[in-house]
Write a structure and sequence with these properties.
241 residues, Rossmann fold, six-stranded parallel β-sheet, two-stranded antiparallel ribbon, 8 helices
């Protein structure tokens, strides 16, 4: 009887040892399966993908160049012939349409001393005086880097059959940089058409290439913008700039 009990205890002891060894092996196997080789190997792949994405983003940024077309314009608000008092200038409207169609940058000529009256009659008197004096009013702001542009649209209202005198300030100060550039004149008017803007621009900037200009009625700029946009887009489509 005692022998049987001892034998049973012995067997239980052996069984316990075997169970313990089996558990240790299982734990060791589990620990091995949680090691980091896959994670370590996958990190370079993730970094490569990240690098490729960063490279793509960098390429997109580098490849995004600013527009090679510029629109320079002078425009007036206040009382205008046939349209009354306006708060968005006729020439500004056309300039913005050109920029939308071409993706061009915009630069507005703003006088340093804005002495131009709000009433139309007074404005015509001041414009005539400047023309008689062959004045060169200063304009405000820093001129864009004109060397960065291939083509430059240039627009203004017709004042006494000519460019406003402030535009000659711009032409003469930048004539050297404008040499070799394609210059494209446009005007807003109420019967004067382009008024020789192209010929006068060619005379002031003889080294530039003057392309076909366009004239838009100021009344249409305020009251028939759909037709103005259509005409502007058709004009731009036939230009080789």
């Amino acid at each position: 009887m005692k022998k049987d009990i001892r034998r049973g205890i012995y067997l239980l002891f052996i069984l316990g040892i075997l169970i313990s060894m089996t558990a240790c092996r299982s734990a060791g196997s589990s620990a091995g399966s949680q090691s980091t080789p896959e994670t370590t190997e996958s990190e370079p792949e993730q970094k490569e993908e990240s690098s490729e994405e960063e490279a793509a983003e960098t390429t997109d940024t580098v490849g995004t160049e600013s527009s090679q077309v510029l629109v320079v314009f002078f425009s007036r608000t206040g009382e205008q012939y046939t349209v009354g008092v306006i708060d968005h200038g006729n020439t500004a409207i056309v300039a913005e349409m050109i920029a939308e169609e071409t993706g061009a940058d915009l630069f507005e000529i703003l006088p340093v001393d804005d002495h131009y009256p709000m009433t139309y009659a007074e404005l015509t008197d001041v414009a005539k005086q400047e023309q008689n004096e062959n004045a060169r009013p200063a304009y405000a702001g820093e001129t864009p880097d004109l060397a960065a542009y291939d083509a430059i649209f240039i627009g203004a209202p017709v004042w006494w059959g000519d460019w406003p005198m402030i535009m000659y300030t711009f032409f003469e100060e930048n004539a050297e940089t404008l040499a070799g550039k394609k210059l494209i004149p446009f005007s807003t008017h109420e019967g004067s058409g382009l008024s020789g803007f192209d010929k006068k621009l060619a005379s002031t900037c003889p080294e530039s290439i003057i392309l076909e200009g366009m004239a838009i009625r100021g009344n249409d700029c305020q009251n028939d913008q759909d037709s103005v946009r259509e005409n502007v887009n058709e004009w731009i489509a036939q230009l080789e700039y």
